[in-house]
Backbone:
């Protein structure tokens, strides 16, 4: 039978992917929770909390969402990707039934594939515009001696399109960041929806 010490030890092991200060804060919270309940209620508390995997998965998802909110004004794509990865790990490590886990993983991969394809399409379009302008500009230089009017037209189009491509860079970067943030929030909601039934059972 699991006791307080083994519960906290297993919980610490499940939280190894989090920063050390977050692990310490989480363990301190649950130690205090046990203290307030009293030694005689140890088993009841363990039953209410659920397995260490269940608790750890919620802590990881909550940390990912909290971390995202704290950095929402920054341009740290690495932070956003870390948040997505933490929530995915939380869902996968949650003590779910096999059918529910398979559905969750399938949803994650399907959602990820759609978003990845969308981002690639945006980047490809932007690069197409930029390099199209460069090609038009170079073409204008090559035909300058043969037909200066057409060359000037090509060069003008090239400058405009290249400039448009450069202007689109920050807009596209902001759009991609927004998409990633929305993905993290959507994964967080998916996680809490998946975990809703187990939580109601305690």
Residues:
């Amino acid at each position: 039978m699991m006791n307080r010490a083994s519960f906290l030890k297993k919980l610490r092991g499940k939280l190894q992917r989090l920063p050390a200060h977050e692990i310490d804060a989480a363990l301190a919270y649950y130690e205090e929770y046990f203290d307030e309940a009293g030694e005689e209620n140890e088993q009841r508390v363990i039953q209410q909390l659920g397995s260490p995997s269940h608790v750890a998965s919620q802590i990881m998802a909550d940390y990912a969402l909290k971390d995202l909110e704290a950095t929402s004004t920054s341009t740290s794509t690495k932070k956003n990707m870390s948040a997505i990865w933490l929530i995915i790990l939380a869902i996968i490590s949650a003590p779910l039934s096999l059918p529910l886990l398979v559905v969750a993983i399938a949803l994650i991969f399907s959602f990820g594939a759609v978003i990845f394809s969308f981002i690639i399409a945006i980047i490809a379009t932007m690069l197409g515009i930029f390099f199209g302008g460069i090609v038009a500009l170079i073409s204008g230089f090559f035909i300058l001696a043969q037909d200066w009017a057409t060359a000037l037209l090509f060069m003008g189009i090239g400058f405009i399109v290249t400039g448009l491509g450069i202007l689109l860079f920050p807009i596209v970067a902001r759009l991609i960041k927004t998409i990633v943030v929305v993905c993290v929030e959507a994964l967080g909601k998916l996680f809490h929806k998946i975990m809703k039934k187990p939580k109601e059972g305690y």
In short: The helical segments are 4-14, 20-37, 42-49, 52-70, 77-93, 98-142, 148-200.
